[in-house]
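Please describe the entry underneath.
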Amino acid sequence: MTLAVLVLTPSIIAVALFIYSFIGWTFYISTVQWNSQVPNYTFVGLRNWIRLFNDTRFHIDLRNLLYYAAGFMTQCIVFGFILASLLDQKIKGEALFRTIFIFPFAVSGIVTGVAWRWLMQPTTGINLLFARIGLDWFQPTWNSHPEYGMWAVTIAASWQFTGYVMALYLAGLRGIPYELREAAAIDGAGSFAIYRYVIIPLLMPVTFTAIVLTGMNSIRVFDLVSAMSGSGPAFATDTLAFFMFQSTFGAYRYSLGAAIGAFMILLSAFLIIPYLRSMRGEVER
């Protein structure tokens, strides 16, 4: 017991100092009047929060967050599960396909954003491919569109993250005993029924993990958006993280930036706390 405490103490101190203390500092700065390059720790209570909640850009960012989360999470989970199910069929070259699918996850968000910015140029990239195959009438503006620009960004984000979700599902599929599928098949269940009543329910913990990971990514997305389009026309592709960055380091409104960051932490807590409680329940069982 003593040895365990000694081994864990440095990590506990480091986490408390470099993570939780700065989280507390962020919440504190959100309650003071530091809105210039000169620090001002005059306590103003929730004034910065009220100003944030009344900001039109903040309302647009919340809408964009819903759009991004819906598109990104759906694509990652659906396509990740489909790819994992295909690889689970013991196909030839599985290792090669698995590497190809998961490789985009190793690419940084900035590189991904730059590559997809080129691909989504209105006069080149994907639109040029559409024109070559006779779809001249279909020339979308992708991430430059003021209404569905955020949906286009989710395509690039899901391209990068789907391989990781695929790996999670593939590990879960490989952990399901073959005897369960065989027993269901003997009882007359077809492939669709086996997936619906056996495999998918057993993969719910994996799905919950994928929801938490993709949800966290949706809340904190910054690098991909900044590389592709920034805040976009009429804040069409703006995010909370990009708003926080510009408020803090562009306008020097540190208290407002801290309020945005604190709000993002609270949003993340709605995902993390249920996940930790479920994991605790799994361990206790």
